[in-house]
Design a protein that fits this description.
Layout (H helix, E strand, L loop, with lengths): L2 E15 L43 H13 L3 E2 L2 E2 L2 E4 L9 E4 L6 E10 L2 E14 L3 E5 L5 E8 L6 E7 L6 H18 L11 E13 L4 E3 L3 E3 L5 H22 L9 E6 L4 E7 L9 E2 L6 E2 L2 H8 L6 H11 L4 H8 L2 H11 L5 H18 L11 H12 L5 H11 L6 H7 L8 H14 L1 H8 L6 H12 L5 H13 L1
Parallel strand pairs: 13-14
Antiparallel strand pairs: 1-10, 1-11, 2-6, 3-17, 4-5, 4-16, 6-7, 7-10, 8-9, 11-12, 11-13, 14-15
Helix pairs in contact: 2-3, 5-6, 7-9, 9-10, 12-14, 12-15, 14-15
């Protein structure tokens, strides 16, 4: 059968581990909180985590508030009434034999998130965002990295508050799915509900993928939906979707199977072979025997509480990026780079407060400041320089009191100083010399030291000017005004 066209269809489940101090239904420390990243296996446990008889769950209010904030940022409705359900299944990392989740009464529902695509902003509908608890983790390495043939269970992650965000199947390319995943991650990081470190499992993507095939005679066929489980990088997310978009068409050509009851399947991603691997046929909701958890009371949320939480929502990444482009006339690239890291963005906000040099500050932070941060294996916000000192450097550059190399040196000095930029620049001799007689003396001696370059400049070779400027800077200790030096060189050699 001849294929006329195909359309990829992708919905997404995103699992976000919330960085509360304690777990979802108990006071045991939360592995997703930075304070407990280095905890030894099976040390963040208590009787409830490992399901000892008689232990009873208690709702973590902070996890509920964090989830409400995410829901509101995704333009969701917040339920006034929600309840907890038991999702029953057996797996070695699930000590209770069930997972406490939400089934028919999710905390957040009916939202929408705009993502950036090549064709502009595109809405992706959010079906629901519900709270549940994470499972434990299976491993196959002994302490020290030695391979173990069996499975080792670590319950540190068990009970971690987990927000599952479910979208409608509104994405039609792997790039759109990645953009959606990045947008959700950015929102969670800006809200402070998760650090979003993929390698630690803070966010896991599970795309639901199928393809609509249209034949030459106009018939339409939908391939069975495939859910790819536990993707923990954007590269894996993109690769799995791209692979499935091709595999499913090839499978349909061979077996003609289409979407319908019992046709769903679950696959995993092989990062080495760059392909998906069949795991099992997909369960339906009734397979999990959902029923209300008898140990937890339903949760009632007032409109007043929702409004109180809504007031804590900060300006979100997309809005910030668009504002920076308009307010500071930044390029899309520069504005996107600033919002990429929340701490960097907040530092930029502080540096621009009360200043009319937003564009210059942005370029300085993205270049000079970021270089210093990389060299010191830290972040710009943690280097030690204050926003006021950054403003001082920019003011000195704007008034032509220091050059670019001096600004770089001054930045490094200010990271360990509480003095003003002007004071440090003065003490260190970084302020540019604009005295014409002094500059003239340096230029004349530099021309004498660089006769070939001088001849080249006389003959119209502008590139040679740089060699003479470099000589002047060496003689002046970098304090000469480069612009004034250049002008005087041209005037001296060409009249």
């Amino acid at each position: 059968m001849s294929i006329k066209s195909t359309q990829l269809v992708v919905g997404m489940e995103i699992h976000v581990e919330l960085a509360t101090e304690s777990k979802m239904f108990t006071s045991a420390p939360n592995a997703a909180n930075p304070e407990h990243y280095e905890a030894e296996p099976n040390t963040l446990c208590n009787p409830l985590v490992i399901a000892l008889p008689g232990s009873l769950p208690v709702i973590n209010k902070r996890a509920v508030v964090m989830s409400m904030r995410v829901g509101l940022a995704l333009n969701c409705n917040i339920a006034n009434f929600t309840k907890w359900d038991r999702k029953n299944y057996f797996y070695p990392d699930l000590p209770k034999g069930y997972q406490i989740s939400q089934y028919d009464k999710p905390l957040c529902f009916d939202g929408v998130l705009e993502i950036e695509t090549d064709d502009g902003l595109k809405p992706v509908r959010i079906t629901r965002a519900h709270l549940e608890e994470d499972t434990g983790k299976l491993g196959h390495e002994l302490p020290g990295g030695e391979h173990y043939d069996g499975s080792l269970v670590d319950f540190n992650r068990a009970g971690t508050p987990l927000l599952e965000i479910v979208s409608e199947p509104d994405m039609h390319t792997a790039d759109e799915a990645v953009a959606y995943g990045q947008a959700v991650r950015d929102i969670c990081r800006y809200l402070g509900v998760s650090e979003g470190i993929m390698q630690r499992g803070h966010m896991r993507f599970e795309p639901n993928i199928n393809v609509v095939i249209t034949t030459e005679d106009g018939e339409e066929f939908k391939t069975p939906i495939v859910e790819v489980k536990n993707l923990n990088s954007f590269r894996a997310l993109h690769g799995a979707i791209e692979f499935e978009s091709k595999r499913q068409v090839e499978a349909w050509l061979e077996d003609g199977k289409v979407m319908g009851p019992g046709a769903k399947s679950t696959r995993g991603w092989d990062d080495q072979k760059l392909e998906t691997v069949l795991q099992r046929e997909k369960e339906d909701a009734h397979d999990y025997r959902y029923f209300p958890d008898p140990d937890l009371v339903p949760l009632t949320i007032s409109n007043e509480w929702i409004e109180e939480v809504n007031k804590t929502i900060p300006e979100l990444p997309l809005s910030r990026r668009m504002r920076y482009q308009k307010e500071f006339e930044l390029s899309l690239k520069d504005a996107s780079a600033i919002i990429a890291e929340p701490d960097f963005c907040m530092f930029f906000e502080s540096c621009t407060h009360g200043s009319d040099q937003g564009s210059a500050i942005a370029k300085f932070l993205l270049n000079t400041a970021s270089k210093h941060a990389n060299d010191n294996n830290t972040t710009v916000a943690e280097l030690g320089i204050t926003p006021e000192q950054v403003q001082g450097i920019i003011q000195l550059r704007a008034s032509n009191e220091i050059g670019s190399s001096a600004a770089d040196k001054l930045f490094g000095l200010l990271c360990t100083s509480d003095q003003t930029a002007k004071a440090v620049a003065d003490v260190e001799g970084l302020l540019q010399v604009n005295d014409e007689s002094a500059i003239s003396e340096w230029v004349n001696s530099a021309i004498e030291a660089q006769p070939q370059a001088a001849d080249d400049v006389r003959n119209g070779k502008d590139a040679a000017i740089g060699r003479i400027i470099g000589e002047v800077m060496k003689r002046s200790g970098g304090s000469a005004d480069a612009g004034a030096v250049r002008g005087l060189i041209i005037k001296t050699l060409r009249g």
